[in-house]
Amino acid sequence: MVKWGVIGAGGIAYRRTIPEGIIPANNSELVAIMDIREEVVKEISQKFKVKGFTSEEELLSLKEIDAVYIATPAHLHAQQTLAALEKGKHVLCEKPLALTVEDCQRMVDTAKEKNLKLGVGLMMRFHRHHQKFKELVQKGDLGKPVMARAQLSCWYPPISGAWRQVPELGGGGSLIDMGSHCIDLLEFILGTRVKEVTCFAERVIHDYPVEDTALLTVKFEDGAVGIVDSCFSIPDHGSLNRLELYGSKGSILAEGTIGQSPGGKAIAYLSKEVGGYDALQRREPVKGEEIQVEPYNTYQAEIEEFAQAIMEDRPPSVPGEEGLWNQKIILAAYTSAREGRKIIL
Predict the structure, then answer these.
(1) Domain 2-122+299-316 carries which CATH code?
(2) N or C end of the chain: smaller count of CB under 10 Å?
(3) How do residues 130-162 score in pLDDT, each as one tens digit?
């Protein structure tokens, strides 16, 4: 049983990771939480009957804690992760791993030096549909991947104190916050790395100083291309958060699998035999096959996998190196948007 402490217990930790991940995980136990807001500490510690602190130093001093989940504003990730590693704690850090490549590298290197596990919260890899899509691609059912698209958008108007709307605190807007998940997901499913990026990052609707609308086009090492669109400027009901995978044998089209919930639906339009060229481009009605999976909470799966890696003394399935690589892509995308040119990684 892995005993957990949480740094930054409000926000996503309180909404999702603690109640849906750590508490129900079959190999984990919540021991303590920390937040700088006293009222948050009181509420959460009482609700889950655990110790509560307003300083990370107090939490990290607890010898019974094996692992720390860090869900604070992004600009704090590096210093808090390094502090936890120095105290001998394994760390699962939310994405982005850090705001600079240098800090990401320091985190990865320190974990290796201390022989500790460092993971990054790219939890959409744990969605059962996404894992099934990866399996189908690996088996060759999609044929050679040609193009993929991942969409994650929401309505995020100006909010007082929202760190994701402050560039110094969050590193950017919709691209780094949501597009990072989409980029990682496409690489995960297709099994190939991004090698070129071109990006638009714009303020179209809201007046805060980070982008509310981002479009990223990528080229993968295997020759396939991809599109990521992530916006803070589209009402929730207007974005279906689509995931589209196209290959030489057909397509896999999903809605609602990208996000914080384990649901969604997916249809496969795949064929073992592809006919010859049809000059009239007649498209006979094709009945797709629904891809059915047994839903499993992505946060619970993420926590259980990281805890199991600790117990088995093996690398976690989403190690810090993945967070380092993801941040390299994000920063290249921002450079592309700023300079109006393609960036080769």
Answers:
(1) 3.40.50.720
(2) N
(3) 999 999 999 999 999 999 999 999 999 999 999
